[in-house]
Amino acid sequence: LKVLLYGYATGVRSSRKLEQRLASDVNFMFLAGQARPDHKTISEFRRRHLAAFSALFVEVLELCAAAGLVKLGRVALDGTKLRANASKHKAMSYARMQRREAELAAEELRVLEEGLTEGARADQHDRLGMGELRGQVALDERASHREADAALAGYGGALGRGTPGAGGARRRGGRLAR
Q1: 8 A C-beta contact, residue 65 and residue 71
Q2: What SS3 class is residue 126?
Q3: Which of 30, 36, 76, 119 is the most exposed place for a label (fewest CB within 10 A)?
Q4: Helix H segments across 49-93?
C-alpha cells in the first residue's frame, strides 16, 4: 500500500513501472522492505482493494492540504508544439534592430524613387509619340510573320511536298509516309 501511495505521489502509476522502481529506486525499496512483487501482484492488489485505496488516498490528500503541503486544484497543460525559427544568428539586439529599420527605410525610399523615375520616363515616351511607334512595330511584326509563312509555303511546294495540310504527307498503315 505504501508503494502504491508513493508511486501515485511521484507520478508512477503503472504496475510494470512500479515493479521496475522496486528493483532500482532506493525509496521504493525502503517502503517495500526489500520485497519485490511482480506487476501482476501489484495490479491484483490494487483491483481487490480499490474502494479502501480510494478512501485512504482522499484522506491522505485532506491531511496534506490541512498541513499546507498540497494545494487542490486543476492543472491544465497545453501540448501544442510549434516549430521555432530562432537562432543566435537571427536574433537581434535593440541597437541592431534600429540599424536594420533604418536600412529598410532607405531601401524602401530608393525603390520608390526608382519606380517614380521609371513611371516619369514612360510618361515622357508616351507624350513624345512613342505609343504610336510601338503600335507600328507590332503591325510590322505581324506583316513579317505573314511574309515568312508565305515563303515557307512556297519553299515546301517547290520540293513537291507542300504543307502537311496540303496533302504532302500521306498516311499509310497508321504511319506518315513521305
Answers
A1: yes
A2: helix
A3: 76
A4: 50-67
Q: Are the CB atoms for 53 and 11 separated by under 8 Å? A: no
| CB-based contact 162:156 (threshold 8 Å) | yes
**Whole-angstrom Cα distance, residue 22 to residue 12?**
11
Question: Cell match 512500479: residue?
Answer: 18
Q: So what's the pLDDT on residue 167?
A: 47
Whether the per-residue pLDDT at 86 is higher than 80: the answer is no
> pLDDT at residue 21 above 60?
yes
Average pLDDT estimate for 108-113: 80
Does the CA dihedral 167-172-176-178 come out positive or negative? negative
Distinct helix (H) and strand (E) counts, the chain: 7, 2
pLDDT one-digit tens code per residue, 37-59: 998 998 888 888 888 888 887 88
Q: How far apart are the first and last CA of the chain?
A: 98
CB contact at 8 A, 59 and 1: no
- The pTM score is 0.37
Q: Give the rounded percent of residues in the chain with a pLDDT score beyond 70.
A: 64
In angstroms, the CA 3 to CA 21 distance is: 10
